[in-house]
Amino acid sequence: MSNSNNSVKYDYLFKIVLAGDSGVGKSSILLRYCSDEFNLEQKMTIGIEFRSHDIEIENSKIKAQVWDTAGNERFRAVTPVYYRGAYGAILVYDITNHNTFQSLQYWLEEIRSRSNNPDVVLMLIGNKCDLKKLRAVPTDEARRFAEENGLSFLETSALDSTNVKLAFQIVLEKIFMNMKEKRELEIDQNIELTHIENSKIKAQVWDTAGNERFRAVTPVYYRGAYGAILVYDITNHNTFQSLQYWLEEIKSRSNNPDVVLMLIGNKCDLKKLRAVPTDEARRFAEENGLPFLETSALDSTNVKLAFQIVLEKIFMNMKEKRELEIDQNIELIRVNQREEEGRKKCC
Ligand SMILES: Nc1nc2c(ncn2[C@@H]2O[C@H](COP(=O)(O)OP(=O)(O)O)[C@@H](O)[C@H]2O)c(=O)[nH]1
Ligand SMILES: [Mg+2]
């Protein structure tokens, strides 16, 4: 597994979202899992927050990136980007409050409709199981709901740690096994950090695993992509002719009508072997509304610039749509990351 950034020490990054009514203990579960702490005075979070926890499955290093809502779940106003690209979702209710159990149907539909991932792994958690005397939701009732909806189910306590680790372990192993079954793990993910307008952006760049030779790239490869870089070889006209195929592949599979596209003619260091005139490529790019650059991975020409262009376009699109809601959330994530770096706990 090749990660270009030496500080990134994992093979796979799985986004997991927490969902459920306010007060059920989502933030406490996050804190327990990622920092092994509990705080009775758990403060309401503002904006989106995520923390990470690393585990190993079958010798692969997995980073679970766990997302927590921001208190805006009180108004059922969780931004769609919260769910997008999630591999797993943990639905939480409070065993002492039946209303929070009744809300589960709403949260389930929210995740299913917004995650963009038909294979999203779902888990149901009945939290606060330490408060036995205050129980309002019988275990059997919850188990029935879980079975009817194909969810794994556990009762947990963020306070005394019961089953919190196990719940995440079940979700992560399921994601891993699903992907392995589909051979989706053959995809190589690289992480690169960059800054745009004082926001720290993590570009997760996916590379195919050689299966593009057979035009057999698994659909999940494209799913949830914010950007796509189409590459041909300036010394090989066939690779240029294939672009139409790849363009349609991306457009039809990315599930994102706003996916930002970029065209790259690579190997521009091999000037003498050129088979695709720059003008011809530029025309194709213009006709299809793609930014265009010639690059050389060998001598570095334009490689960084190409990614920068794509990332800035994604950022600007999102900003325009206020999907970033906006700097407030990013700022918060950044602060949390700094705190975590400082603490050097598990993240
Ligand atoms: N007894 C008990 N209290 C909990 C547990 N988890 C969370 N709480 C408390 O429940 C309240 C709401 O928790 P919080 O994590 O903010 O819930 P969120 O709104 O879903 O993020 C806080 O006062 C927590 O201390 C638990 O497992 N047991
Ligand atoms: Mg919270």
From TrEMBL:
It holds the Pfam family Ras. This is Uncharacterized protein. SMART domains: RAB (SM00175), RAN (SM00176), RAS (SM00173), RHO (SM00174). Belongs to the small GTPase superfamily. Rab family. One of its GO terms (molecular function) is GTP binding. InterPro entries: P-loop_NTPase, Rab_GTPases_membrane_traffic, Small_GTP-bd, Small_GTPase.
